[in-house]
Fold:
Amino acid sequence: MVVRILQILCLLLGVLQLGQAQDMHFSQQYATRLHLNPAYAGIHADYSAILTYRNQWPSLNGAFVTNQFAGYYRLKNESTSVGLVMALDKAGAAGLSNFQLGGIYAYQAIINENLAFSAGMQLSYGSQSVDYSELTFGDQLNNDGTTNLNSVEPYVYEPARYVSAEAGGILYNNNFWVSLSAYHLNQPNIGFNFTSKLKAKYLLNGGYKFVLNKYYYLNKPYERSITPSLTYMHQGNFKKLDAGLYTTITPITLGILYRGLPVFTEYGYDHAVVLIAGIVLDPIKIGYSYDVPVAQWGASTGGAHEISLSFEKINYNKIFKKRVSGKNYKRIACPSF
Structure:
């Protein structure tokens, strides 16, 4: 009975979170960086393709499962990039599904020898639906405990479809970055048979890389570094602050993230300590993270597992030649795996 109550409580909290923040979220923020800001397209590599799988609260019936594909391609002029983000999120035992498909355009500009700026915009199509086959209505219940296959209840909720506009900018160099983005600028209606505006979401993210040692071998960079970062999110009445610390010893990156610092205590159910590990095996990058819930009842949920797999093409020869010749070629300092 206690486990069942926890399942219901977690489902309600999850739906509440969806109702307030609505968007999918990931713990590996920089493996899923296009989810933070469309302006990240084209900064890290000539082209990139990233697959991410997240399973939240796996110990409960009706976990929250998210799958995402994201990719971008830097055009030949090296200043503009195009990208694509596609994601499917299934939340809870009721089969609430959220599908998103977005196209990205980004432009990078060198400000001076120490600074660069990237601007990006995204236009997305979204669809929310309920899988009625996952629901059991009162007329399906029999006195002997069995259930009927069919219900006479009408399926009155058609999928909610909407279009959303996003934009963002990043100021960066080889040591620091500051990212500001805004999602759902047009505040689309996501209600099924009623009006429910999806509030605009604002993300402020940044960090600084402290390089302990760096060298080039066979035209490839190797480093030892420590990178702290902060991410602030504001959507309607929902506010969240995350703090992370990443250590890189090429080709391995280890990180720890506190999601939901206790600044906004009213949303304490979302607090978690995230353990992150990533490895770069050019051109493949692999990341894994586990969310350790901070709340007392969190251990019963099973936390959250997240896996990322990416393929990236980076022209190290071009970077090395421009570094030697003194030409401007900025690489962002945030972790990448």
